[in-house]
Amino acid sequence: MTLDGMVVRPMRSRPSGASALLSLQSLRKSVPSGRILFEGLNLVLQAGEFVAIKGESGAGKSTLLNLIAGLDSADSGGIAINGTDLGHLDDDARTMLRRKQIGFVFQAFHVLPHLTLAQNVALPLVLQHVPAAEAERRAEEMLTAVGLTGRGGDYPRQLSGGELQRVAIARALVHRPQLILADEPTGNLDPETAMRILELFATEVRHSGAATLLVTHSDVAAAVADRTLVLTREGLVDRHGH
Fold first, then answer.
1. What is the pLDDT of residue 109?
2. Architecture of domain 2-237
């Protein structure tokens, strides 16, 4: 069936008894001035789990995502994705892990203006050397899933902000990553469009079965997740302070 132009699909079942897909252990991160963003940060995320992390500007939410993606290094502590310790990987290995196992959705969309929508969505597959015909098929499939059927030949300049974020969601999911990282994905959208995109995002990531980490300052955005944690200097706490 469809909802607001998007395809609503049944959720994939979560694997039972699976080990943690993402494990953060005693992470500590400071800025060059010496100010500590957070320390003693721990988190375990299972496949299919959708967690929101709230925090004020400057709390280190985006920095935390960069650490998980291997784009930045913690002062101390460990990060493992599917049992692979990022600290044991060189730059090339981290790049390959990002390409294969992680999907990103950003506030600023980061859709490439010189590529068509289909080419933008297919980019993660191209980087993995998926055959062109298969990449095109999967890109068009994802565009249909996010309510952009038949728009693959259009260019980003022809789209609204909400449509661009739909493209970004399709691109994040097209290579079937096991971990989705979303950084304020509706921060540039008006409230009504943001709500539609949040519902779409939640539907698609749950269908994918991926573990999902959404960082936001918004209660509305956090409400689509299974649970919400708050980022503090002492690490992650739930709403009851645990």
1. 87
2. 3-Layer(aba) Sandwich (3.40)
User: Over the range 125-161, which residues count as b (16 or more CB within 10 Å of their CB) and which as e?
Assistant: beeeebeeeebbebbbebbbbbbbeebbebbbeebee
Whether 241 shows a pLDDT value over 90: the answer reads no
**CA-based nearest residue to 143, from 131, 132, 154:** 154
Handedness of CA 234, 236, 237, 242 (dihedral sign): negative
pTM over 0.85: yes
Cβ pair 220, 47 in contact under 8 A: no
For the chain, the structural domain boundaries read: 2-237
